[in-house]
């Protein structure tokens, strides 16, 4: 297994499947009151440079359920907010803790943190990737559909951290991935370069949501303006106006098509309230599975 989880690009299909299998097992144990076998007393430092509900709560609860402890460190209330270098923060935390989870802006920041830290670093979202979310998505899709390879996954909207991680995670697991983004809002070149190397699953990038959604087994979206793009909200509302998951788009998907959304959602923008509520069970199962998938990551990297 890897030392860190920075991006799914670093993981093989077998390693991703191992995480999903352990996540299923930990979920079963948790639901049935069976104790987890994990060394007691581990600590996870959680650095947040951006807001969070799910990531913070699921990592903190997950660490507690594994018999350890998680510490919340907001960058503004720590010395990082006053300019202490990442290299020094990494080497300090590595003297106290057994793992670091970080949510930040530049992907290079998590790479630098991992470089300087002897302990595992887990990416809790950067501007480029959101691997923990996509592990939870893959786990949820597999729960509902019983398998992954051969399914068609469609993503509609901004070519953001979610789009990039879905391209990598989806294709690695053998799903056909189709992405519809407006011109100028496409996925990151690193994710596209990976997609170009894949031969055993199909990748489609289009500006037409209808082409992307046709025959999809799972359709996914995310907010039009991610954290850090708040000043572009009005401009993006115009650019993304045709990129909504609504009844018209759902009608083009395969029968039984699932809907996933990493949350938080802006209902009425990237997804209608009625489609969201009709698929709320799947969407909140996805949110729950953050807990199980991340416990599996900690189990493998910190156990
Ligand atoms: N999906 C997700 O990462 O949610 P939070 O921003 O609430 O952590
Ligand atoms: N793309 C969103 C995901 C939030 C969980 C963002 O980066 O804000």
Key traits:
binds norvaline; alpha/beta; binds phosphoric acid mono(formamide)ester; 9 strands; 303 residues
Plain-language structure description:
- This protein is of the alpha/beta class.
- It is built from twelve helices and nine strands.
- It has a five-stranded parallel beta sheet with strand order 7-6-5-8-9. A four-stranded parallel beta sheet has the order 2-1-3-4, sandwiched between helices.
- Strand 6, helix 7 and strand 7 (203-206) form a beta-alpha-beta unit.
- The model has no long low-confidence stretch (mean pLDDT 98).
- It binds phosphoric acid mono(formamide)ester and norvaline (NVA).
- Phosphoric acid mono(formamide)ester is lined by residues 52-55, 125, 133, 262-263.
- The site of phosphoric acid mono(formamide)ester has 8 residues, from helix 2.
Summary, kept brief:
With 303 residues, this protein is of the alpha/beta class. It has twelve helices and nine strands.
Radius of gyration: 19 Å
For the biggest sheet, the summary is:
5 strands, parallel
Structural class: alpha/beta
Mean pLDDT over all positions: 98
Bound molecules: phosphoric acid mono(formamide)ester, norvaline
Q: Number of helical runs?
A: 12
* Strand coverage percent: 5-15%
Helix content bin = 40-55%
User: Which strand order do you get reading across the main beta sheet?
Assistant: 7-6-5-8-9
Shape: globular
- Number of E-state strands: 9
What distance lies between the first and last C-alpha atoms, to the nearest angstrom?
Answer: 11 Å
């Amino acid at each position: 297994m890897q030392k860190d989880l920075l991006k799914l690009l670093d993981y093989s299909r077998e390693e991703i499947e191992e995480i999903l299998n352990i996540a299923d097992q930990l979920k079963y144990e948790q639901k049935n009151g069976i104790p987890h076998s994990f060394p007691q007393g581990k600590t996870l430092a959680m650095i947040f440079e951006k807001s969070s509900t799910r990531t913070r709560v699921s990592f903190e609860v997950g660490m507690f359920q594994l018999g350890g402890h998680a510490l919340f460190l907001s960058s503004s209330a720590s010395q990082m907010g006053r300019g202490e270098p990442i290299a020094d923060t990494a080497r300090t935390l590595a003297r106290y803790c057994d793992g670091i989870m970080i949510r930040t802006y530049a992907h290079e920041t998590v790479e630098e943190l991992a470089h300087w830290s002897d302990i595992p670093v887990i990416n809790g979202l950067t501007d480029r990737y959101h691997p923990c979310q996509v592990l939870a998505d893959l786990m949820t899709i597999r729960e509902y559909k019983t398998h992954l390879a051969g399914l068609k996954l469609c993503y509609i909207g901004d070519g953001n951290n979610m789009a990039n991680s879905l391209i990598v995670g989806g294709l690695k697991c053998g799903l056909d991935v189709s992405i519809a983004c407006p011109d100028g809002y496409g996925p990151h070149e690193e994710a596209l370069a990976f997609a170009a190397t894949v031969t055993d699953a199909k990748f489609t990038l289009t500006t037409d949501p209808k082409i992307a959604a046709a025959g999809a087994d799972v359709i996914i979206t995310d907010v039009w303006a991610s954290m850090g793009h708040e000043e572009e909200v009005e401009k993006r509302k115009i650019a993304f106006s045709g990129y909504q998951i609504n009844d018209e788009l759902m009608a083009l998907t395969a029968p039984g098509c699932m809907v996933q959304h990493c949350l938080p959602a802006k209902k009425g923008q990237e997804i209608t309230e009625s489609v969201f509520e009709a698929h709320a069970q799947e969407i909140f199962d996805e949110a729950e599975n953050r807990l199980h998938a991340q416990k599996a990551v900690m189990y493998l990297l910190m156990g």
